[in-house]
Amino acid sequence: ILEARFDQKSYNPNHLEFQTGRGLSIKRKLGPNEVMDVFIHAQERWPDRASALYTSYYPATDLKVMLRNQVANVDFDFEILYFWDVYPVQEKETWEVFLDRGLLPYQGVKLNWKRKESGNGNQ
């Protein structure tokens, strides 16, 4: 993690308080109907085929997942969990999924990706 900001307040992602066994954990409480902008700048080597889960352990009012994709050789696939009538929307290089009717724990979006294969079958 190179940089972390919550509502324009910067946090040092290398501070031991925020380190966890599986990554970064910066806890912030939100009240009912409260909104917070979150910015995480990360650099990481990703496996050729994998996924990431965007959800909550607690009920939530909404969830928005935005993917700004400028990677030409990777295919992304949004898997909407437990919502059959919500679809990703694309505008230029940005994909967005917005779940705005309330979420129960573990409902949300699973983002899958895989490296595109070249024309001769090699990766």
Query: What Rg, in angstroms, do the CA atoms define?
Result: 16 Å
Strand content: 35-45%
What's the count of strands? 11
Tell me the strand order in the biggest sheet.
Answer: 2-1-5
Gross morphology? globular
Write the H/E string, N to C.
EEEEEEEEEEE
Distance between the termini: 28 Å
Mean pLDDT across residues: 84
Largest sheet: 3 strands, antiparallel
Structural class: mainly beta
Spans of at least 5 consecutive residues whose pLDDT stays below 50 are: none
Helix content: under 10%
Number of helices: 0
Provide a descriptive summary of the structure in words.
With 123 residues, the protein is mostly beta strands. The protein is 0% helix and 42% strand. The strands form 4 sheets. The chain has a 3-stranded antiparallel β-sheet with strand order 2-1-5, with no helix packed on it. It has a 3-stranded antiparallel β-sheet with strand order 6-11-8, with no helix packed on it. A 3-stranded antiparallel β-sheet has the order 7-10-9, with no helix packed on it. Strand 1 and strand 2 form a beta hairpin. The mean pLDDT is 84.
